[in-house]
Amino acid sequence: MTSTLTISALTKTFDGAKALSDVSLHVAAGERVALLGHNGAGKSTLMKIILGLIAADAGSVSVCGAAPGSAQARAAVAYLPENAAFHPALTGLEQISHYLRLRGESAGKAMEFLDRVGLGHAAKRRIGTYSKGMRQRVGLAQTLIGAPKLLVLDEPTSGLDPVSRRDFYSLLDGLAADGAAILLSSHALTEVEARTDRLLILSGGRMVAQGTLADLRREAALPVVMNLTARNGYTSDLMAALPAAIQFAEGLRISCRQQDKLATLAQIAVLESKIADIDVMPPSLEDIYSHFSRRDGQ
Amino acid sequence: MIDRILATAITEAHIARRNRWVAIAVALMVVFSLVLAAAGSAATGALGADRLSVTVASLTSLSVYLVPLVALLMSFDAVAGEVERGTLPLLLTYPVARWELLLGKLVAHLAILALAILAGYGAAALAAIVTDPRAVAGLAALWRLTWTSVLLGATFLCVGYALSSLARRPSGAAGLAIGVWLGLVVLYDLGLLAAIVADNGGVFSTRVFLFALLANPADAFRLFNLAASDATAAAAGVGGAAASIPLWQSLASMLAWPVAALVLAAAAFRRVVP
Ligand SMILES: Nc1ncnc2c1ncn2[C@@H]1O[C@H](COP(=O)(O)OP(=O)(O)OP(=O)(O)O)[C@@H](O)[C@H]1O
Ligand SMILES: [Mg+2]
Fold first, then answer.
1. What is the pLDDT of residues B182-213, one digit of tens each?
2. Is the pTM of this model over 0.90?
3. Which of A45, A48, A53, A201 to mutate to test the pocket of ligand 1 (most atoms within 8 A of CB)?
4. Which of A63, A225, B156, B268 is the most buried (most CB within 10 A)?
5. What whole-number distance in Å separates Cα of residue B186 and Cα of residue B195?
């Protein structure tokens, strides 16, 4: 696969404070990559450097084989800033027409782009009268202009309702299927897990993890937790039989390593007559995320 | 390139129309021009000059204040407003050069300003010609005033863009714009006058003074229009100086200023980090 975006050893300091240190990553054509990280982790800074809006202190960035911010790179990249803003006096139609003309496309196609993000009905109203989600959709519409090779989306689903989010991700699927590389940042872990190919986790300006969710789950090696509910009066029997268990609320809780899961279950199965119920809980997405995100002492 | 400049110009024109800038600029120019035309008609006759030439002389004194003011009011928000609204980062990721953005804004703003100038002067000319058929003799002077006013407007629009880029906040840019207007249009001449009095016929009065007049776009505008017009030789203020400066020098100053101001604005805009 060809890499559309390649970043190596990127470092950026703001007045002495490190915003990014030694960040490397790549995004291939047709790949959807999610960038996660706590507030202030450096996600937006990384994106602005990719777009050439701010300069890096060290390291290299290659966007479709060109330098960030160069004419060639700008022609191939679409950007959605966090809190996308537009002039309140313009209508959605005028704003999208403007962006179409700037990319050398016919302004007549503006309505088509607004329809794709479900804004057709409000096209002739001023953006000043739009809701937050509607403004966000104007921002999304402009990223679709000119079949970009790379989309850099900073919290694209913020402000969107659940149905719009789903529509947005299916829009992304279509773009990725056509060969676009997509880098998006988000704080919504569950939707990102389901709808992207790979996760990157930034923490305090450092890349602390990259890979598919399965990769990260394995790497984090977080314990599996099992909650047991004892039949009436058998709690102490169970405690005696399972030394690893701790008493927890109405029942018992056992946590074990991934590789010991089956052995532990076998141990429990023997005690079937004394157990009313059992819940097996794999580490949640939030657990895995905070494992990586907190590692750097947040 | 032309497409991208026009794209920005079209959008700026929409914004200016919505924000009532077109209406405000036209109304301002028409009202002030008609007031002057009415006031000028009282003074005619005795001088022997036609009514329009007299009106042109008073329009010159008006425009030297009003055109820079309207131009600065239209332009001070151009960059700082985009920074404040947060629209600049996205715009700068588009395949458009910064100078193309500035030029697009200039095209739109200058078209609006030219429209206002034409409406104002046109109304004054109409009023003069209707009441005095001899006034057609002043049309040449009016035409000269019109295109020089547009040049003056272009200069101050670009100065406004430069201030807007330097300030990066609309409130700061507005303050700078008012300061520059006061400085160049009002205080500059007072300063020169004070210097002449203090100098009392020395090097300043003989050499520096004329150069200082040419260096100010507003004074160059006044010099050119006064010197070119025979009917207004008696005009006060810099009128005396106008006689001693060749026409081509004030013309060169007026042509050079818009270009220099645009280069300045582009340089200032280049340094804005979104
Ligand atoms: N222009 C700037 N000047 C100084 N510091 C900055 C600037 N921009 C960002 N920073 C700092 O860089 C760090 C990273 O900020 P960034 O906006 O990239 O975070 P983020 O990951 O996008 O956070 P969020 O999830 O809240 O959007 C923060 O500590 C921030 O304060
Ligand atoms: Mg951010």
1. 999 989 988 888 888 887 777 777 778 888 88
2. no
3. A45
4. B156
5. 15
